[in-house]
Here is the input.
Amino acid sequence: MSVVLVTGGTGQVGRALLPLLHGAGHDVRVASRTPERSARTPGQLVEVDLVTGDGLASALAGVDVVVHLATTNGRRDEEMMRTLIAGVESRPEKEPAHVIYLSIVGSDRIPLPYYRHKTAAEELALRSGLPVTVLRSTQFHSLVERLFSAQHRLPVLLVPAIALQPIDVPEVAARLAELVGQGPSGRVADIGGPETLQVGDLARLWQRLRGRHRPQVPLRLPGRTFAAYRDGEQLVPGPPFGRTTFGEFLAREG
Ligand SMILES: NC(=O)c1ccc[n+]([C@@H]2O[C@H](COP(=O)([O-])OP(=O)(O)OC[C@H]3O[C@@H](n4cnc5c(N)ncnc54)[C@H](OP(=O)(O)O)[C@@H]3O)[C@@H](O)[C@H]2O)c1
Here is the structure.
C-alpha cells in the first residue's frame, strides 16, 4: 500500500476519490490551502498552497503517489504543476513519487485559454522525467448542470449547438484509484460518459427533471473554439468508460 497525497482533495473529484483510496488501504494525505475549513475531510489534512509552494516540502515527505487535482480554473494550473514537479524533484527520497494528473479531453485541440494551461501542465508533467500518468476526462455531469442552472436569471435557456459526453465524478474517481494501484503509465486512454447528446437534449432532460419550462435557444458562435466543439474534439470515440447517464445523475442529486 502507498502513501498518497491528493492535491485538490477537498474538491469534487477529490472528495469522491478519498474513500476509494482509504478503502484500498492507502495512507492518504489531503492538501488544502485552508485545512481548518475542511476538518470533516477523511485523511490527514496538510496545509499547502501550490501557487506559492508553501507547505509542499513537508506534505511530500515519504509520499509514493501524488494525485494532482488542484485547479485554479485558469493560468495558475501551469504554475501549480511547475511548483509540484520542483517539489517532487527536490525531495531527499531516492525513489521519485508517481504524479497522476487529471486533464480534459480535447485540451490540446480546443483553443480555450484554460485548456491551453491544462495542456501546458500535462506537457510539463510528461517531459519532467518523473514517473507520471496523465488522464483526460470529458466534462462532468455537474458542470453541465451548472451550465444550465447558472442561467436562472434569463427568460430563456441558451444551449450551445454542440454535443457533449458528460461523465459522473465517482467514475472519474474510480479510474484515478485504479491508476494509483497501476503505477506510472504516461498518457492513458481518455475517458468519457456513456452517452453523447446534443446540449439541447441534455437541457430538455434537465428542464423536465428539475421542473423548469423555459424556451431553449440554440447558440452558434463564430470562431475556432466553437468550431472545435462542433467538430467533436471534446468527445471520446469508441466504447464509453462511464455508465451513469446524465438523467441518472440528475435523479440521484435530486
Ligand atoms: N469540471 C469538469 O467538467 C472537468 C472535466 C475534466 C477534468 N477536470 C479537471 O479535474 C480536476 C479536479 O476538478 P474539481 O472539479 O474536482 O476541482 P474543484 O472542485 O474546483 O476543486 C479545486 C481544488 O483545488 C484546490 N486548490 C485551488 N487552488 C489551490 C492552490 N493554490 N493550492 C492548493 N490547492 C488549491 C482547492 O483546495 P482548497 O480550496 O481546499 O485549497 C480545491 O480542492 C481539475 O484539474 C479539472 O481541470 C474537470
